[in-house]
Amino acid sequence: MDIFEKRVRNLGPLGQYGKQADGYFMFPKLEGEIGSRMVFRGKERLIWSLNNYLGLANHPEVRKADAEAAAKWGMATPMGARMMSGQTVYHEQLERELAAFVKKEAAYLFNFGYQGMISVIDSMVDRNDVIVYDSEAHACIIDGMRLHIGKRFVYPHNNMDGLRKGLERATKLVEETKGGILVITEGVYGMSGDLGKIKEIVEMKKEFNFRLLIDDAHGFGTMGPNGAGTDEFMGCQDGVDMYFGTFAKSMAGIGGFVASKESVIDYLKHNMRSQIFAKSLPMPMVMGALKRLDMIRTMPELREKLWTIVRALQSGLREAGFNIGNTQSPVTPVLLNGTIPEATNITVDMREKFNIFCSIVTYPVVPKDIIMLRLIPTAIHTLEDVKYTIEAFKEIRKKLDNGDYKNMAFADISKL
Ligand SMILES: Cc1ncc(COP(=O)(O)O)c(C=O)c1O
Predict the structure, then answer these.
(1) Before 60, cis peptide (omega within 30)?
(2) What is the mean pLDDT of residues 251-278?
(3) 215 lines ligand 1 (CB under 6 A)
(4) Tens digit of pLDDT for each residue in 282-311?
(5) Which one of 226, 277, 305, 416 is at 20 to 30 Å from 28 when CA atoms are compared?
(6) 302: number of CA atoms within 13 Å, CB side?
(7) Which atom of ligand 1 lies closest to the CA of 216?
(8) Domain ranges of the chain
(9) Given 3.40.50.300, 3.40.640.10, 3.30.470.10, 3.30.420.40, which CATH number is that of 60-298?
């Protein structure tokens, strides 16, 4: 069979809805400067769906640093992979500063967090090693494991008995293979906002011999007294062997890094295929990241403002009787009972009547008949935005309970 024909006949779980959904539910175009107000389909909306936690994306100092770096170096510099011709003192400086910030000996940069995580996993384990990981691990962790030809055991999300069982099985196995064990969890789980039980996992090192890698994409810059991450927040940085962060969220940039012992970073530097066989991170990204990191370190008011909004939003939603799950981070899921057609009508109503734009998550990401409205509060939201949104959500819930969204005709997005 022709491979093209085969693929276009079955467009995949999301692609099958492309015709009805693209441009509105999927691939929406947000226009204008990044902020709490952006234009969607010609109208200004209140935006709750960008991981611009600290509001750095459009901060004047960040914009200036980005523009100056682009003017000085262009987007091409440096040419080539780090190992060949793409090394600069600024890449090294950024790595030193990142490592110091997350209290590790050394760090290494990636061009994307996603690609970086895949590559770290790929480089750290061989056929004799075993990975034990949380069932809600991000796609980049899952895809990294697809490259692993040894065994892997999954434990139910944050279930420490499950992890213990996994570690017992893994320990038996590596006694035979003479391999090692890598445990992988996230710091902040990006959908539900709950935290990986890093402290408890670190405690298990007293019983089992393993190394711990955490993906702290959402925790870097937002969690802990200095914004150094979820393990700083929990007071267990020493027990985390490898810390992974991305620049795509609180840093409002692109790229990522892994931090660990100097000897391990030295190993990765010479073995991580995503960096050996790909072009180095461009200078504007590096200089921009140095500026952003400096602001995270020296402007705690950004994090304080973020948390003022987070607390107001989460306590306001809880007081209004909304179920926001078990979040302990800025990620704020609002869980409602309803079907996918109802979720569709809620999305349209929320955007068109209330001018609120947030992500809507349905089955299979959440259980059947649950609708998750996922809000990302940031330092550039205001308490008025919070108040307005909670009032809007109360009206939406009332309509949902009345069955209004069930009885509503399926919205024709081409007319919106
Ligand atoms: C938990 C987690 N890990 C990794 C990534 C990938 O990061 P990046 O967007 O830098 O590729 C993301 C974000 O999309 C994420 O949420």
Answers:
(1) no
(2) 98
(3) yes
(4) 999 999 999 999 999 999 999 999 999 999
(5) 305
(6) 22
(7) 1
(8) 3-53+300-415, 60-298
(9) 3.40.640.10
Residue 180 in this model has a pLDDT that exceeds 80: yes
Least confident of 10-14, 163-167, 213-217, 399-403: 10-14
Atom of ligand 1 nearest to the CA of 254: 10
Please write the tens of the pLDDT for every residue from 128-154. Answer: 999 999 999 999 999 999 999 999 999
Tell me, yes or no, if the two domains 3-53+300-415 and 60-298 fold the same way. Answer: no
Pocket mutation for ligand 1, best pick of 140, 191, 220 (most atoms within 8 Å of C-beta)? 140
Q: How far is the CA of 115 from the centre of ligand 1 (A)?
A: 9
Element (H, E) at 302: helix 300-319
| Residues 6+ positions from 124 with CB-CB distance below 8 Å | 182, 211, 213, 242, 268
Q: Which residues fall within 8 angstroms of residue 382, CB to CB, at 6 or more apart?
A: 36, 309
Q: What percent of the chain has pLDDT over 70?
A: 100
Query: Tokens in use for 237?
Result: 């940085």
Distance 334 CA to ligand 1 centre (A): 22
Q: Counting atoms of ligand 1 from 1, which one is nearest the CA of 140?
A: 4
User: Distance between CA 220 and CA 228 in Å, rounded?
Assistant: 6
Query: Who wins on pLDDT, 415 or 44?
Result: 44
Q: Report the C-alpha gap between 137 and 215 in whole angstroms.
A: 9
Instruction: Kindly tell me the sign of the dihedral angle through the C-alpha atoms of 102, 108, 111, 112.
Output: negative
**Closest atom of ligand 1 relative to the 248 alpha carbon:** 10
pTM of the model: 0.97
Q: Which CATH class is domain 3-53+300-415?
A: alpha beta
CA 142 to centroid of ligand 1, rounded, Å: 12
The pLDDT of residue 208 = 98
| Residue with CA nearest ligand 1 atom 15 | 217
Distance 246 CA to ligand 1 centre (A): 6
CB half-sphere exposure, 181, CA atoms < 13 A = 24
For residue 73, CA distances in Å to 180, 190, 341 come to 43, 34, 50
State which amino acid sits at residue 222.
Answer: T
Q: Is 219 in the pocket of ligand 1 (CB under 6 A)?
A: no
> In ligand 1, which atom is closest to the CA atom of 138?
1
